[in-house]
């Protein structure tokens, strides 16, 4: 946890109750150690969707479908969500969860490696998103970025989760275990690229495990 635990608990106590099916899914995911978005990130997404009112959302990293379903509860009625996942164990649950909702016709699950799927989407004419939520393999964010930027509409918003990795990104490279150094280097490179890109205006927030918000200029 990056922010003081007591403050986070208090802020979370103010968050709006989820519909029963979502809070059940959230509990199951936590119990089974599926890494879904935290309460703080839920509040941020809810706010961003209310502000941005996107028409097309793209999510990289479905897991069991919790965040896609969460966003479907907050998005405008005419909005749709495309979400990408490659791990079969997660897909088995995501397929069921994303079908068992009255918003099923608004949610498209694309199965496969995100880099491949993103490239295919970027090559399709007219495939553009005004809200992209990046929440997949952290070490791959740099590889996804060129395709994500192609897919992001002008003035579109890119939100990336888990960018501070429990605060370890801020530590010196030498304080990081050898095992985690590659991810540490790659995440720093990703953060530097987002914050210094001429195409983007980016802010880094210490919400949840760290979230960046980038607007395409
Ligand atoms: C943090 S979880 C996503 C959580 C989800 N957004 C939520 O909050 O409910 C990241 C997901 O990305 C998936 N993932 C990792 N590498 C991937 C890849 N190369 N292509 C597609 N999905 C990938 C993992 O299997 C995992 O389910």
Automatic annotation (TrEMBL):
Which organism was this protein described from?
A: Anaerocolumna jejuensis DSM 15929
Membrane-spanning residues? none
Which EC class is the enzyme in? Answer: transferase
Which GO molecular function terms does the record list?
A: magnesium ion binding; O-methyltransferase activity; S-adenosylmethionine-dependent methyltransferase activity; tRNA (uridine) methyltransferase activity
Name the positions where S-adenosyl-L-methionine binds.
37, 67, 85, 113-114, 135
User: Which InterPro entries has this protein been placed in?
Assistant: Cation-dep_OMT, SAM-dependent_MTases_sf, SAM_O-MeTrfase, TrmR_methyltr
Gene Ontology biological-process annotations: tRNA methylation
| Name the UniProt record assigns to this protein | tRNA 5-hydroxyuridine methyltransferase
At the top level, the lineage of the source is Bacteria
